[in-house]
Amino acid sequence: MAPFCESCGVYMKKQGSQTRYFVRYEDLAECFAAFKAEMEAGQFRRAMEVHADAGSRKLDASSGYSLRAEIKQCKGCGKQWSSWSRCNG
């Protein structure tokens, strides 16, 4: 279910999502730390750019880890919401 904007009384709309794959856990952790720092600074677009520039777009036999990021936004007030998930393959 989509997150709900209490201020506007509407569900937030998906702005984008992406998954990146990593061979090493350390690379995933570094990407996540940079992504999280940008999110906490309110730089949602930059956070997604940091994530997009990391890892690989495609899963292959050597990819043991993945990081998925998603951004949603309220159409009324513009408030943004993010979620992420990590997976050990």
Characterization of the model:
The protein has 89 residues and is of the alpha+beta class. It has one domain (13-88). It contains 2 helices and 5 strands, in the order βββααββ. 28% of the residues lie in helices and 36% in strands. The chain has helices spanning 25-40, 44-52, and strands at residues 4-5, 10-11, 13-22, 65-73, 80-88. It is elongated. The strands form 2 sheets. A 3-stranded antiparallel beta sheet has the order 3-4-5, covered by helices on one side. The chain has a two-stranded antiparallel ribbon with strand order 1-2.
Write the layout of secondary structure elements.
Layout: E1 4-5, E2 10-11, E3 13-22, H1 25-40, H2 44-52, E4 65-73, E5 80-88
Antiparallel strand pairs: 1-2, 3-4, 4-5
Helix pairs in contact: 1-2
Strand ordering within the main sheet? 3-4-5
Mean pLDDT: 90
- The SSE string, one letter per element, is EEEHHEE
Estimate nothing, just give the exact number of structural domains. Answer: 1
Descriptive keywords:
89 residues; alpha+beta; three-stranded antiparallel sheet; two-stranded antiparallel ribbon; 5 strands
Write a concise synopsis of the structure shown.
The protein has 89 residues and is an alpha+beta fold. It has 2 helices and 5 strands, in the order βββααββ.
